[in-house]
Please model this.
Amino acid sequence: MPTAQSETDAARRELEKVLASTGFSRNERMARFLRFIVERHLDGRDDEIKESVVALEVFGRRADYDPAQDSIVRTEAGRLRARLGEYYQGAGKGDELVIELPKGGYVPSFRWPEAAAPLPQSDRKKRSAFWLAAALAGLAAALGLLAWWWVWHRNTPIGIAVLPFENSNHDPANDYFADGLTDELIRNLSIIDGLSPRSRTSSFAFKGKPRNMREVGRELGADYVVEGSVLRAGQRLRIDAQLIRVRDDFPVWSGKFDREATDIFAIQDEISRGIVNSLRLKLGRGRRRYETSVDAYELYLRARALESNGGLQYYRQAISLFEGAIAKDPSFAPAYAGLAGAYAATSGTFRSMDRRDNELGKMRTAAETAIQLDPLLSEAHEARAVAYARDGKWDESEKTFRKAILLDSNQATTFAHFAMDLLLVVGRTGEGVRQLRVAEKLDPLSPELHFYLAYGLTSEGRYDEAASHCKMLPGRLPG
Model:
């Protein structure tokens, strides 16, 4: 009998093999459904494999999803059972493990096929046939592994960096708008399947500097770079953007937009769509299109620009601006998420201990409101996870951090907070360092991340590695 660990390992191998088959590689939604239920089951999280959660996380339904009015999960489960049956009657007939989806539920099961009876050893011809079949099976397995590697390699997210858009007004007072547009474009791209954008901190290291695209690509680990300019004149906007392939400095796509300022969300959407179409990707699930007033959005962008300075005083100023944006538009979820994140920053310092409880309460309220307005907003779940961690609710915090990562796996701050606010605090230093390594890949030039890695590696006794990160720190960190 196989051990629990060997069955788990076999199930993970089988999952990847099934997903690489033609029937699933051509149906992204069904593949996502299968991966979700299998991985949750293997992680011991069967309580999350229920119709309401699947509808929200796999099929992008709203938090008020009513299965009586929308049978999407039941319908797709039936199709998934049929597709699995087709696979195991064809390409997967000889697989070492069978994944099944029993009727009446969504928790998968695994079955080991019965071993075939041994061939008679007295018959030379049959013995030869047996070894020939074994050789062919080995070849098929090797080809299958090669095919799986090719699919995996093909599906590796594309590294992309959005450099700070140039403020063509040449008025420093308008820098916040160009910087904010850059920041929001990074956020928009981060939730597109197949893309791995570099975080704001690393991208903005190139602000105001001469740009050699190959050098930028090398330092940020990016295959493509987006750059552009913004000219604002009254209520008119002129935005130029282009997507450049790093390896040969080739402009893959460009767009020019001359619109009213009220069209800013449509412009961001069109830039994202142009990039996606040029790279032959698909707009993934969880992608949102917000609408708000120009006044509210300006306050929101000013707050985001202040946050990028990294100091406690800037976060306090950002809080006021986020609250102003919310006053102008109480339905704008990103403003609540930004407010929650700002409170997470201010409540986490020794200098704010006298007001910590009050700020934690405001952080929880803002995060909960953002989630109610947009259940798919990753940064709101991240803020709630930080609040749980500050209260010592470790299980709730970990679940919520993993939820945030599931919704958007390209936010370096989520991995960093997961490590620093939870994993390192409870002594899970190895896991914490692994999370910080993921964050480092997304934000390779961030001083804070190098500081966090130095701290985590020191905690593990890996002093030489820690020293290499210390050497990459500036004279002092913001704050």
Notes: Residues 240 and 256 are 5 Å apart (CA to CA). Confidence is low (pLDDT under 50) at residues 115-126, 146-154, 283-287. The domain at 158-278 is CATH 3.40.50.10610 (Rossmann fold). The longest helix spans residues 124-154.
